[in-house]
Here is the input.
Amino acid sequence: MFNWLGNVRDRLRRRAPQFDLVSAQQRIPQSAPLDAHSARVYEQSPWVYIAINRIAEAGALVPLKVYRLQGERRIGIDNHPLEQLLACPNPLTSRFELIEQTLGALELHGNAYWLLVGDERGLPREIWMLRPDRVSVVPDAARVVAGYLYQLDGQTIPLSAVEVLHFQRWHPGNDFYGLSPISAARNAVLSDRHMSDWNRHTFGKDSGVPAGIVNIRDFISDSDFERMKREWRSNYGGTSRRTAFLRGGAVEWQHIGLSHSDLDFLQGRRAQRDEILNIFGIPVGLVSENATEANAVVAERQFIERTLYPKLVRLAEKISADLLPFYGQGLVAAFDDIRPTDMQTRLAEIQAAYPIMSVNELRERYFQLPPVGWGENPPLSPRRDNPPLNLPPTRQGEASAAKSAIENELAQWERFALNRLGRDETRGFEVRALPDELAFEVAAGLAGAGDKEGVRAVFAGVSPQRHGGTED
Here is the structure.
């Protein structure tokens, strides 16, 4: 049954075979499978507008940094040329606008394109955003993507693959283009729009008066019938809301329309809103008028962790793969990690690492601070104090005053730390006289202290004599 496997070579293929067939079938470039009304939906649907703007504007606020890989570590590069380029991508666009347009295009069309313009050395000098509805991918059997075609004012502009940075969402039914969330939200968007139009016509064109029938029971002549129609439309039609007064029992108004209450109109629009926002990954608590403060905080955290941050990772990894190689190897781009931190979990982790990690390791791992010369030992490890120096009397007086100020401040810190045990107190200590290294040592120790004995041990382990101004 599986004898045919014996003909397969014992090494990997040099090329994925499906691209030959896919490219051969699509040698003629096809336009992206865009919804023709995507831009119109963004302009006319308030919930689509809100969802895309929340994502695009929030993502544009997050800084992008370039790092050099050193083993498994990432070493930050200050003011990398790519960071300078993104600060001013082109004469008409700012960094915020570029990232905003990129994220917005991905949500609206499922695709976003950057056109790279180079300098005399071949390095990117400008970045221009291309409209996704004007870009077509040109497949190629050898290179998968031979390039792109940009349609503008009836002209076709060919672009090479190296000139274009193509961001795309996953599309299960297309090999070259991404899928827009609007495609999944089509029915909800159309239903919400039809309900909105019906509401507008009801209160605009029909002045809120539901449809009905004027039933004339008695037989009347054609001339009288036409006259009554003219008078009815003249007196009770139009845009003004009026009350009909009828005389006699021969004419009867029969109501056939449904009111907003009968249609459960508001609940229906809320359901459409919730469906649209959920498709875009926007928690309802961010926009709901009934959300409590706690619900809003949880909703914002979910939005950052599950919606916004993954989208930023998609952009950063694409930039790392296709744009940073212009500047050399071993470089990666990453947006700042904006995911909220669980303080209780963080404090528990610091408490567990506190006895076995040095001050420098704690500074680097939990506080992103550079190493210091006095930080090679654990914070509470016994250390030999520096011997006092023979100073002139005036310097000795100054050192004694500094030492006294440090001891007083340490005593205040200890009282404050003991008093706030068991309370949700996040206010930090005010540093006045303590040197930076001593303040960090105490703060790191208190982060791992969970009871009074631990707090007292922290202050018993510090030595103000090492920092009391006795050094020249």
Residues 10-236+259-340 form one domain. Residues 4-9, 240-249, 382-391, 466-472 have pLDDT under 50 and may be disordered. The first strand starts at residue 30 and ends at 31.
